[in-house]
């Protein structure tokens, strides 16, 4: 199921609960038998759930979604589509009406910003990135993420890509920042010893993209403490584009939506020299536009 415009994992808004459940299983690369084994069900029961021939009780569906390490927003859609009550927000923030961004508003909002801006959820999956970010990274987000595995949409995997890692002068510092951020996420608690299907796929994709960096990722995961939740924080980014002066960004993180577990990341040039260098890089790529990618996509398990 292809996703347009770099849409976050969660599938077709018009899909039924069982179709979304099947899609999420396929996106983490598990067979029906493997998923059933994780929650104490046989493959035939999982198959009947996915085809809508049987309806799981709430606890059973929650266990299935937990085993798949589904992000909060997708779990909310599946649970409510099945007819179960599911909290409207991940945290008890009270009714806010239209206070929070929707996914559609997030994708529209990031394009208003002239510097690189992207968003991600609580599992580190990239939801959207504006044209400035995609041009700097030289990544066509829709082509990179559409129809591929959830691991391909993860921030750790993006940082492991040589085209990005080679330009980040403070790559290890940034990696430590994201380790501290995601160590507090329950689904990532056992990333080293019992990662589950999503984070196992993330580690595998990281290793394929950047074998030398995998050991450092493991070392940081063991030693860097989890960071405390805040509504806004900062981190440094040092970008070295061949043929251009060094660009120093101030990474600014703020909440976009508590209900969806999505935050904004802005890379704001720190000074006039960095701003000029960034504009020069963008000007050198004036003809670059996301064109899509017709490469063969991995086949999902049946």
Descriptive overview:
The protein is of the alpha+beta class and 302 residues long. Helix content is 43%, strand content 12%. The protein has helices at residues 17-27, 32-39, 43-50, 58-67, 72-82, 103-110, 131-137, 141-145, 155-160, 162-165, 171-182, 196-209, 211-223, 272-284, and strands spanning 117-120, 126-129, 232-239, 247-257, 262-269. The chain has a 5-stranded antiparallel β-sheet with strand order 2-1-5-4-3, sandwiched between helices. Helix 1 (17-27) runs antiparallel to helix 5 (72-82), helix 2 (32-39) packs across helix 4 (58-67) and helix 11 (171-182) crosses helix 13. The two termini are 14 Å apart.
- Encode the helix/strand succession as letters: HHHHHHEEHHHHHHHEEEH
Quickly name the level 1 CATH class of the largest domain. Answer: Alpha Beta
- β-strand number: 5
Structural class: alpha+beta
Residue share in helix: 40-55%
Binned strand content: 5-15%
Largest sheet features: 5 strands, antiparallel
As an assembly, this protein is single chain
Key structural traits:
disordered N terminus; alpha+beta; disordered C terminus; 14 helices; five-stranded antiparallel sheet; 2 domains; 434 Repressor (Amino-terminal Domain); Beta-Lactamase; 302 residues; 43% helix
């Amino acid at each position: 199921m292809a996703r347009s415009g770099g849409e976050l994992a969660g599938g077709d808004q018009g899909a039924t609960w069982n179709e979304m459940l099947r899609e999420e299983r396929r996106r983490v690369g598990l067979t029906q038998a493997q998923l059933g084994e994780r929650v104490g069900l046989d493959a035939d029961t999982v198959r009947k759930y996915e085809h809508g021939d049987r309806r799981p009780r709430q606890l059973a569906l929650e266990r299935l979604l937990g085993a798949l390490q589904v992000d909060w927003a997708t779990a909310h859609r599946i649970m409510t589509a099945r007819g179960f009550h599911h909290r409207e927000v991940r945290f008890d923030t009270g009714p806010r009406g239209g206070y929070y961004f929707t996914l559609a508003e997030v994708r529209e909002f990031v394009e208003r910003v002239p510097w690189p801006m992207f968003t991600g959820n609580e599992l580190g999956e990239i939801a959207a990135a504006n044209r400035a970010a995609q041009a700097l990274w030289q990544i066509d987000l829709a082509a990179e993420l559409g129809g591929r595995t959830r691991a391909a949409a993860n921030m750790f995997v993006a940082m492991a890509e040589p085209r990005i890692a080679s330009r980040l002068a403070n790559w290890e510092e940034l990696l430590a920042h994201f380790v501290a951020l995601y160590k507090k996420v329950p689904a990532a608690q056992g990333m080293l010893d019992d990662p589950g299907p999503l984070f196992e796929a993330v580690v595998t994709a990281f290793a394929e993209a950047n074998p030398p960096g995998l050991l450092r990722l493991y070392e940081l995961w063991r030693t860097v403490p989890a960071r405390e939740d805040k509504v806004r924080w900062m981190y440094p980014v040092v970008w070295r584009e061949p043929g251009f002066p060094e660009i120093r960004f101030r990474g600014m993180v703020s909440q976009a939506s508590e209900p969806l577990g999505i935050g904004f990341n802005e890379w704001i040039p720190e000074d006039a020299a960095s701003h000029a260098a960034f504009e020069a890089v963008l000007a050198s790529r004036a003809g670059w536009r996301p064109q899509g990618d017709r490469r063969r996509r991995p086949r999902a398990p049946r």
